[in-house]
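User: Continuing from earlier, I have the next pair ready.

Assistant: Great, send them over.

User: Here they are, in order.

Assistant: Folding the first of the pair now:
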Amino acid sequence: MKAVFVGGSSGIGLAAARLAEAAGWDVVIVSRNPDVPDIDAERVTLDISDETAVREVFSALGPIDHLIFSPVARAGGPARTLDLEAARRAFETKLWGPFAAVQAADVRESIVFVSGVAAATPMRGGSATAAVNGAVEALMRTLAVELAPVRVNAVSPGIVATPTWDFMAAEDRDAMLDRFAGALPVGRVGTAEELAAAVWLLLTNGFITGTVLPVDGGHRLASP
């Protein structure tokens, strides 16, 4: 099996790529900075928001069995004062870039997107995040119909301790994660490995398609 992990150089994508490597799959990590230690994988440098480069890369990759998208671009803040350029970058990174990749790629088995809990559970300051994740999930459902028998699904994480939070000062990040942990039914935030296990389920279960799989510690039940 050949699996391409877009955004696979850290966090959920890297953890999922490690599972594929352990299973003996041929792994390709596609990222702005794909040089990840301690994983046997082909590396491809790519800015997923560059449509021309995306089409060139995926045309060159040839047939692939599984395609996984977990790129991240942050755009947070109150809707009325939100930096719309940052919001556009989020859409280019998480929606339009992957859309172009789907058009260019020759996928044989399945596609998995990583969306997010904000698509289902409103949070103050999360309007752009909610919008892009909702768009990803809507796209996924239509692709599951159009691309069949290729299966198309999405994993929807809640709050997960990954490098996506590294833009914050360590003290602020830890306080924020602790606050979320205290509000969740499971009493803690998630790990990249737990989300990777969900990605792996969608990659390997041939009877799942058109599904958003929430892996959020109960976030949707008791929104922090």
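And the other member of the pair:
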Amino acid sequence: MANKAYQKIYTELTAITKATVALKASGVSNDELALVDGRLSQVVRIKGETITLQVFSGTEGIPTNACVTFLGEAPSLKVSEELSGRFFDAYGHPIDGGPEIEGREVEIGGPSVNPYKRRQPSELIPTGIAGIDLNNTIVSGQKIPFFADPDQPYNQVMADVALRADVDKIILGGMGLSNDDYLFFRHEFESAGALDKIISFVNTTENPPVERLLVPDMALTAAEYFAVEKNEKVLVLLTDMTLYADALSIVSNRMDQIPSKDSMPGSLYSDLAKIYEKAVQLPSGGSITIIAVTTLNDGDITHAIPDNTGYITEGQLFLRADSDSGKVIIDPFRSLSRLKQLVQGKKTREDHSQVMNAGVRLYADAQNAKTKLENGFDLSDYDHRCLAYAKEYATRLLSIDVNIKIDEMLDTAWELFAKHFSPAETGIKQALIDKYGQWR
């Protein structure tokens, strides 16, 4: 903390809302921390001499003559190798019973990497989930959201990705997690013996919602330390960005800002972009890749949060329940990785893109056959084969509980093609059929 001699202290508030207080003050900077009646707060607006502070734990019980002490510094995190394997709260304090971290103090929420120092992403990040690796391959330095309904097991998927991803460090930023979710992540990481490469920053439903606003910056400050200074491949998992945006809304509404679409602040795009643009592939080999859950309200993809997210990120992964297989799958029609062509066939087997395209096209033909069936039309032999294929394809390749290597995914797809279709019906080049096909 700043030296007491330089801290500015005031004792008169001019306004109090549920999340913010205002007062007249001078010599204060944006994002500076303060104590309001002993509660940690942060400067969110400066208008002339009127300073607005968001109070992380809420303003209930704060009197108008409360003591306000400006601390002369922005939120920070101590960075070192000691972060590995630890669980922290939104302020970077340990919540796992372990000691405080010793390290260099770094201000959180700094600018993203200079575009001049960025390299085009070209490294594959395998997750073991075929619906991702086969159809929507993720590349290091990519930013991509998981769109999911609130009842989907997205935290299970995030834990699976954390345990399977071939990276040096995984950093989890949990916002608005239930206590059960927090304990689930902790148990999964500990029982897998993977704690040494996982760092977690957690805000639970028992903590004040406004604290969520610190979590992504804490996670990304840790990520930048390992990617920039240690040249490591870092995967940042953020869940749930909808609850993060809701916290933004709480603060902006309490500041009497005019809300934009869906009651979200007008700054939502830049607030989200500030987080997602931290994804980077560095010339040194270090990288930050971001996968972030955005839960949907009644499946509404046009809501301001997923809508703005789609403009910033490089695709999306869409979770849905599949009635035919009874599995939760990565929807091949609504999911998209805009960078997959940078690694498919280059860092993976030569038949990857052709197998992917054939698999999805035949699955689409099955959906057409299903529509014909529902409308009472007769089905052809090809339709029946498509339907049988689709059920196996969803179970063995699209389901989130599939955990296999990419070559095995490709071989599985070839097996399904040979079982249900002729070589010509796949539309795959003959040279690849001759080399990898399983028709006998």
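Worth noting for the second one:
The longest helix spans residues 352-374. The chain is about 30% helix and 20% strand.
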